[in-house]
Design a protein that fits this description.
The complex is a heterotrimer.
Chain A lengths: L1 H23 L1 H13 L9 H31 L14 H4 L1 H20 L12 H8 L5 H28 L5 H30 L5
Helix pairs in contact in A: 1-2, 1-3, 1-7, 1-8, 5-7, 7-8
Chain B lengths: L7 E2 L16 H8 L5 H4 L3 E5 L3 H13 L2 E5 L17 E2 L11 H11 L6 H20 L15 E2 L6 E4 L5 H18 L3 E4 L2 E9 L2 E9 L5 E5 L2 E4 L20 H8 L4 E2 L4 E7 L22 E5 L17 E2 L1 H5 L9 H13 L11 E4 L1 H7 L1 H19 L8 E10 L2 E2 L12 E3 L17 H21 L12 H20 L3 E2 H15 L6 H21 E2 L9 H25 L23 H4 L1 E6 L8 E6 L14
Parallel strand pairs in B: 1-23, 2-3, 2-11, 3-7, 11-19, 20-21
Antiparallel strand pairs in B: 4-6, 5-6, 8-9, 9-10, 12-18, 12-22, 13-17, 14-15, 14-16, 16-17, 22-23
Chain C lengths: L2 E8 L6 E8 L8 H14 L22 E2 L2 E2 L21 E5 L8 E3 L2 E2 L2 H10 L19 H11 L6 H5 L6 H12 L8 H14 L10 H5 L7 H15 L2
Parallel strand pairs in C: 1-5
Antiparallel strand pairs in C: 1-2, 3-4, 3-5, 6-7
Helix pairs in contact in C: 2-6, 3-5, 5-6, 5-8, 6-8
Classes of the chains: A mainly alpha, B alpha/beta, C alpha+beta.
Chain lengths: 210, 649, 247
């Protein structure tokens, strides 16, 4: 979980950094999208690098989900009879919502791809520039989409807050000082990431971009 | 008092295994003279060990390491839960790491004197000798003893001694030592050298051709009764303080294993020697199920007092003016003050409560006040020293000891008596060995602080493994079969007894009988005993025993987990033991250690021994539930430490 | 005070179970939780009912026998406290209190609130020891241990093996128990020779016993009566990684 999770966190940051290009200008954003496809040329044909990335990413997600499923199955087996009095959450809320949080995030990612990558759910469709899709997708009259994105991104934040700290622990973090640091790093990274991701739809919503 | 309506007197009992000559070399010589078992033959020999505390756990691990086949039994769900785990203070060893004049001889001297000259010199000397090896052994196992900044072991001093020889692990020394023994044992279980049977209770001893050859056990989960055979049986089943119902013992601690052996012929020595610990949390009501010990170390800084006038007892402590308080220990014992030995502090508390000056519910408590210490050292310093104890007190009583003084009262803590054993730790039944608190051998009439852990581990790690070989060298003994008459009989006794418990179907619970027995014992065979009281108690116990066998109600079946059935068997044995304790206390018309007879005291109320008349260990032989127990005396000779009077004024 | 308790009743290992409600009247706030059950049991016996079976022994918080999940929390509402040291004054008159056994496949119910925790012994058997046969030990001062390490080892060694960590863990994992023993022994110089094999073998035994996997949820440490810290799991993971890389 820790290793695949770390891969995914790296991706999330790269993705967020790219998103911010929209503040530089719509054309820059479109160029960035194009550059992603151009990367690796002429060694690789156009678009191949992106597909390699996508395959790597899918493998990361697959591993992450596989590990999570295995742990969940083990957990179910380890407690065949449930408590009649539902246990109170005593540790952190983020820790106890990892599983359902993960499922919600997967569903969101599917929607997200259909919305902004393929354009299936996007009012502007898949045939326009990526920046146009973004601007059409988060248009003010589609506030509910922004709301949905917000909730999803916040849940990613929660997932990361426990996930990043937990990854440190799984990889052997053990001192009190280190724990404080790991918790701080997890919190800062999650907040920064959430802020980076939310800045784009809100900028569109408020008309800052568009 | 000579033999009378309560008991008969028989031949003296003699320890034939004890070597004579200089005390310093007795153990070496005994080890050398003891027969050995060839390593190849050891795996043909089976030893049953009942109990997995410090003595039983260390014995089982060591015997298994040596190559014997060991079968181990405990009533708890895991050997790690034996009650040794609750010992707080520490373990003595004559390491002299402090260079403060300690030595094997001094530990020997202190222990004989602390035992009020009622222990065997040979045994105590050996205990002091091997104490040194125990610490080495435990450190090698990874026991996390307290250490100083230089990385070496820390020591503290304990009551009754003038040197620092107590090794400790915070307030959980017993836990850490037991886990060391437990882990050594689990390793042997994993290797297949020990067959561990947790949740199994020994209910009878099997004797074939005069030798202990096995036990009858009940699987406490399924209720199945089985017979288990071996070449020797070791009892490490602990003390019998629970005869008082309320004690600091674990709820499950019982005398059944020892008592069953006693009924089959093993002598029971000095049953009346009971250690009553002065600093326990008092009873809070009729629901009380056990008492909790507060470390004795509290008396280093706490001052013990009660109101001078009985009418002040209901007032909150804070409203009683300084001049109306009686710091009675400081008043009566100016030189030792609040640090007098356990027995003296306990009796003094009882006396002031008997005068009607006790505090708290039922007037059974005295104050242990830290106000002066907090003023002198500051709250922080007191917190650093006793914080965890204060928390525990608050958790149990709901009172904050930083604000209001603690209330304490004495409680039964340890029993010095037990099955009689010789120098080899063998009882009067051949092949039956007894180790730890279950035997009587090392503490005399009073045990010093931090000596119980020392004795348990000495017996289990170092003494028994060396002496049992002398017996096992004659084995393997002829195979025993399920159909042998003594086996069939022992099994039937167990089955009949269980059937009897279940069939009475009376109108009183087992606990109600146990509680009543405890009240009788505490009242008449507790901190102060009189001829009149003990005679009365014997009558009361006999009547209670009769009532028990006609009115007890044990619910459920035998073939299931049945905690009340377990309790019934234990209480039935406690009823018989209680009577013997009173008889022993009645016959010993002197005061010594944990036995105070009101008729035998000095003009200022201190214990008065009669060495000429009672300088012996009293070993009792069983003669039927209604027969008279027979006294066998073992004369105690003091060649090195000459009896003197203890004085703490 | 008068309360109601809803207790898990199960007559045997293979029987089904259910929550049964009992009234307990006039219980003293100074009674411990187990004493409250004692009082209830006395009534049940005299009424001809089967008393509630529960594990308990020392009743002073150190043996680790007592094991009740009270209102969904292992050992009940008070922090760093075993069931036996929990007192009724922590509840209110009229409360309805749910009492259940530890629930884990590795801790099957024997009867009512009594479970079989021998899986913990199996984990220790696999490597939770230092091999030091009696009589082979060097002098205790032969290997000094820095006070910091000795103190940390002691803290880890205070685990009482009650199993509350497993009972509370959403995954039914015994990681905190195992980690405490790994830390205790791994912090002592005497524990170094077996350090690598210990962590591998104990983790294997833990998996074999049917405990769940650890996801660092942290519920274990909040219910642990001895406050064993979650950081010890990080230590175990680090030991495991090193041990595996040496293979």
């Amino acid at each position: 979980m820790a290793v695949s999770g770390a891969l995914l966190v790296l991706f999330l940051f790269a993705h967020a950094a790219g998103n911010l290009k929209i503040f530089v200008g719509e054309t820059d954003f479109d160029h960035y999208a194009e550059w992603l496809r151009d990367l690796g040329t002429p060694l690789l044909p156009h678009g191949w690098f992106l597909w390699l990335q996508r395959i790597g990413l899918l493998a990361g997600i697959g591993l992450h989900i596989w590990a999570a499923t295995a742990l969940t199955i083990r957990a179910k087996k380890a407690r065949p009879v449930k408590y009649a009095h539902r246990p109170k959450i005593q540790g952190s809320y983020a820790a106890r919502t990892m599983r359902w949080g993960g499922v919600i995030i997967v569903l969101f990612v599917i929607y997200h791809i259909l919305d902004l990558t393929t354009g299936t759910f996007n009012p502007a469709g898949g045939d326009v520039d990526p920046s146009a899709r973004v601007i059409a997708g988060f248009a003010p009259d589609r506030w509910y989409v922004t709301l949905f994105y917000t909730l999803a991104v916040v849940s990613v934040g929660f997932h990361l807050r426990h996930g990043i700290w937990s990854a440190f622990r799984t990889l052997g973090q053990q001192t009190t000082k280190g724990e404080r640091r790991a918790k701080a790093v997890a919190l800062v990274l999650s907040v920064v990431l959430v802020a980076m991701y939310l800045s784009v739809p809100f900028a569109v919503l408020t008309g800052l971009v568009g | 008092m000579v033999a009378n309506e309560f008991w008969a007197e028989g031949e003296p009992v003699v320890d034939k295994a004890a070597p004579d000559g200089p005390v310093e070399t007795r153990w070496e010589r005994r080890k050398f003279s003891a027969k050995l078992v060839n390593p190849a033959n050891r795996r043909k020999l089976t030893v049953i060990v009942v109990g997995t505390g410090l003595a039983g756990g260390s014995a089982a691990a060591t015997l298994a390491e040596a190559g014997y086949r060991v079968k181990s039994y405990c009533y708890q769900d895991s050997p790690r839960r034996a009650h040794s785990i609750a010992a707080q203070g520490g373990i003595n060893a004559a390491k002299n790491y402090r260079n403060d004049g300690d030595s094997v001889y001094r530990l020997f001297y202190d222990t004989v004197k602390g035992g009020d000259f009622r222990a065997r010199e040979s045994n105590v000397y050996r205990l002091a000798q091997v104490s040194v090896n125990i610490i080495d052994q435990c450190v090698a196992q990874g026991v996390p003893f307290a250490r100083e900044y230089g990385g070496l072991l820390d020591n503290r001093s304990f009551g009754g001694t003038q040197v620092s020889r107590t090794f400790y692990a915070r307030g959980q020394t017993g836990q850490q030592l037991l886990l060391g023994a437990y882990q050594a044992m689990e390793r042997q279980i994993g290797l297949g050298n020990i067959e561990m049977n947790a949740r199994h209770e020994m209910l009878e001893l099997i004797i074939v051709d005069g030798k202990a050859r096995g036990i009858v056990v009940r699987d406490m989960v399924t209720g199945e009764i089985t017979t288990e055979f071996a070449d020797a049986v070791v009892l490490a089943s602990g003390g019998y303080g629970n005869v008082f119902f309320l004690s600091t013992n674990a709820k499950g601690c019982n005398v059944t294993a020892s008592w069953r052996a006693h009924r089959k012929g093993a002598l029971f020595a000095n049953p009346c020697y009971t250690q009553i610990h002065p600093t326990c949390i008092p009873e809070s009501g009729s629901h009380q199920s056990k008492l909790t010990l507060m470390s004795e170390s509290l008396r280093n800084d706490g001052r013990v007092w009660v109101p001078k006038r009985a009418e002040d007892c209901q007032k909150p402590a804070g409203e009683i003016a300084e001049e109306d308080r009686d710091y009675y220990l400081e008043r009566i014992y100016p030189s030792f003050g609040n640090l007098v030995p356990r027995d003296i502090a306990s009796r003094a508390a009882k006396n002031v409560c008997d005068e009607g000056r006790g505090v708290g519910p039922g007037g059974l408590g005295v104050y242990l006040d830290f106000a002066d210490a907090i003023k002198r050292l500051g709250r922080k310093a007191v917190e650093a020293k006793y914080g965890n104890l204060f928390e525990m007190y608050e958790r149990i009583t709901g009172e904050d000891p930083y604000e209001t003084p603690m209330r304490i009262y004495p409680a039964v803590h340890y029993t010095m008596g037990g099955l009689w054993v010789d120098y080899d730790l063998q009882s009067t039944i051949e092949g039956l060995f007894v180790v730890g608190e279950a035997n009587f051998s090392d503490h005399g009439a009073n045990r010093l602080g931090a000596s119980a852990l020392m004795q348990g581990l000495a017996d289990g790690y170092f003494v028994l493994p060396n002496t049992i070989s002398n017996y096992l060298a004659n084995g393997p003994f002829p195979a025993v079969s399920e159909t042998d008459a003594p086996v069939v009989e022992a099994r039937k006794e167990v089955e009949d007894r269980i059937a009897k418990f279940l069939s009475i179907d009376g109108d009183r619970t087992v606990d109600s009988f146990h509680r009543e027995l405890g009240q009788i014992m505490w009242e008449y065979c507790g901190m102060e005993r009189t001829e009149e009281g003990l005679t009365k108690a014997i009558g009361l116990i006999r009547a209670l025993k009769e009532e028990f066998w006609t009115r007890v109600k044990v619910p459920g079946k035998g073939e299931e987990l049945n905690q009340n059935l377990e309790k019934a068997g234990r209480v039935a044995d406690f009823l018989e033991l209680g009577e013997l304790m009173c008889i022993d206390a009645l016959h010993r018309r002197e005061s010594c250690g944990g036995h105070f007879r009101a008729e035998s005291q000095t003009s200022d109320g201190e214990a008065l021994r009669h060495d000429d008349e009672f300088g012996y260990a009293a070993a009792w032989e069983y003669f039927g539930a209604d027969g008279k127990p027979t006294l066998h005396k073992e004369d105690l000779n003091f060649e090195y430490v000459h009896p003197s009077t203890r004085s703490y004024k | 005070m008068d309360i109601k308790v809803r207790v898990w009743r199960q007559s045997g290992p293979t029987a089904g179970g259910k929550m049964v409600t009992y009234d307990v009247k006039g219980i003293s706030p100074d009674a411990s939780f187990l004493e409250m059950i004692d009082v209830l049991n006395e009534t049940l016996i005299l009424n001809g009912d089967d008393p509630i079976a529960f594990d308990h022994d020392c009743r002073e918080g150190i043996c680790g026998a007592c094991s009740m999940v009270i209102n969904g929390v292992a050992h009940g509402p008070e922090k760093a406290t075993t069931t036996c040291q929990l007192h009724m004054r922590k509840f209110k008159d009229g409360d309805v209190i749910d009492v259940e056994p530890w629930r884990a496949a590795a801790f099957p119910v024997i009867k009512d609130l009594v479970v079989d925790r021998s899986a913990f012994d199996k984990i220790i058997q696999a490597g939770g020891y230092i091999t030091a046969p009696t009589g082979t030990a060097p002098d205790a001062h032969a290997a000094p241990v820095p006070k910091k390490d000795a103190d940390a080892a002691f803290e880890a060694a205070t685990c009482i093996g009650c199993g509350a960590c497993v009972a509370a863990c959403p995954n039914g994992s015994s990681m905190l128990f195992t980690a405490a023993k790994i830390a205790h022994l791994g912090l002592m110089p005497q524990g170094q020779p077996e350090r690598d094999s210990r962590v591998i073998d104990m983790l294997q035994a833990q998996d074999d016993a049917g405990f769940g996997g650890c996801t660092n949820a942290g519920e274990c440490t909040t219910v642990c009566p001895k406050g064993i810290p979650l950081s010890l799991i990080g230590r175990l993971n680090s030991d495991y990684r090193k041990a595996i890389s040496k293979r």
